[in-house]
Amino acid sequence: MCEDILTKIISHPDAVNQEEVAAVLSDEEITPKLFSKADEIRRKYLGKDVYFRGIIEFSNYCRNNCLYCGIRGGNSVVQRYRMTPDEIVSRAEIILNEGIKTVVLQSGEDPFYTTDMIGEIVSRIKNLGMTITLSIGERDFYEYRYWKDLGADRYLMRHETADESLYAQLHPGDHFETRKAHLLELKRLWYEVGAGSMVGLPGQDDIALAKDILFTYQLDADMVGIGPFIPHPDTPLKDSAGGSLEKTLKMVALTRLFLPDANIPATTALGSISPQGRQMALQCGANVIMPNFTPSPYRAQYALYPNKICIMENDKACGKCSKLLVQNAGYEVSESHGYRRRIAKAHE
Ligand code: SF4
After folding, report:
1. What is the pLDDT of residue 344?
2. Is 295 among the domain residues?
3. Nearest-5° angle of CA 98, CA 104, CA 110?
């Protein structure tokens, strides 16, 4: 039965319902078939290319209190930092010198960085000839437009869970509909938009996970980042169980079937729960790696979750190690800017 569902996802994704997606997620026997189908589709539409994005985590201040997050505003233990625009731009230059043409600027939701400050950083990095992804949380709609006009190319804002009641529990004072409205506005402004979710959250069942996949499909997300939930000791969820490697990989593979041409990272969180996590993700549908270029000592302080890999590496080590990882997994490092390769009729 689940084999039929895989066939249906590939041929008629619009007709697939959440119960069918959940059935695939709960069926252990289908896993090898699902992974090989996802890799087949990825190779058919994207070849062996793996796109690189250098990430700079420029501030760990956050005004929000997401229950799962190690840098939530209510965590008084974490040591906070902010990078200056000059520091950020000089890190972008290091990324470019490593042959990586895309930079991801990530932070907590930190209003210290005004519209104009972010605009100035975007303009200066665009002048280097780089592609820019902003990942700085929910901001005013006029700001999205302003930064787009200055040259920002992509906006990454994971939805974390598309289950409305779970979303409300995990994000005090916030609602899934708000997050959805922001993502739709970013799409409307022609950003390449990244959504994505966490796997293994307390109270999350396979139907909730199926909602995540169907949401990213309906959004036509250009990027989808999926990682396991890893409980952080300084958060209210510290005693919860974390997400599993296999379930997270199944989410990656199913996403590839629904969105054959989307960019799907092999997330650092996957590499943090298993030494082979990112390689395995590349082998079941993922096609993006995001080496970390946050400078020390800040890198270790951007602790969204514990035991994050690569926090002790030096400037260039992550780029080199990531390239090796890609080659060892049987794929090729792409030196392109890594835009989504639009496929006119992906499922035919
Ligand atoms: S997940 Fe993002 S928005 Fe939520 S507390 Fe952490 S940094 Fe802030």
Report:
1. 52
2. yes
3. 135
